[in-house]
From TrEMBL:
The lineage of its organism: Bacteria, Pseudomonadati, Pseudomonadota, Alphaproteobacteria, Hyphomicrobiales. This is Cytochrome c oxidase assembly protein. Pfam families: Caa3_CtaG. Its main location: membrane. InterPro entries: Caa3_assmbl_CtaG-rel (IPR019108).
Length: 183
């Protein structure tokens, strides 16, 4: 089922990856400055997400166990880099982190919207590979997968943005120039 496939990616990319980065913060942040790679992380995550979820990419992955493993590993690795860069940038360049979340959320949600509002199953090859008929239930499965993407990306990215903005405003409020008023 496409819904189960998407759920695996959502959990790996939007739950496990950010928590792994936070849990291993010393490892991720002290080895290199991930925020330097913010632009690369954005592009890599979007290109991999869209590339693997094009009908040909997903069908190829489903038909080849090595490609399926490569799909899961590359998406998880891209998510680790993305979240490490966002979390690192949040401390020094909040606007950069917020911009990364906005751009990535928009493009990820666009993919989810395509799944949700498509009038026919987009993944006939994927469905045929799994012996699934391309009837109404396949379309419903695709729509549910898209709704999961829309919901998960929205909540995870907006949640991260809220935390970054709250932390940023707290730091701004503590700054001496904030309370001094006009000179």
């Amino acid at each position: 089922m496409l819904t189960e496939h998407m759920l695996e990616h959502i959990v790996a990319m939007n739950v496990v990856a950010p928590f792994a980065v936070l849990a291993g913060r010393g490892f991720f942040m002290h080895r290199a400055s991930p925020s330097r790679w913010l632009g690369v992380a954005i592009v890599l995550q979007i290109v991999l997400l869209w590339g693997w979820h094009m009908p040909a990419g997903l069908t190829f992955a489903v038909r080849n166990p090595a490609a399926l493993l490569a799909m899961h590993l590359s998406l998880f690795a891209a998510a680790l880099l993305f979240w490490a860069a966002v979390i690192d940038a949040a401390g020094t360049r909040a606007w950069g982190a917020l911009s990364a979340l906005l751009v990535t959320a928009k493009l990820s949600c666009l993919l989810g919207a395509l799944f949700t509002f498509a009038p026919r199953p987009l993944y006939a090859g994927y469905l045929a590979s799994n012996g699934i008929q391309t009837d109404g239930s396949a379309l419903e499965d695709q729509h549910v997968a898209g709704l999961l993407m829309l919901t998960a990306y929205t909540f995870s990215y907006i949640g991260a943005a809220v935390v970054i903005v709250a932390r940023w405003l707290s730091e701004v409020e503590k700054a001496p120039s904030w309370h001094d008023g006009p000179a």
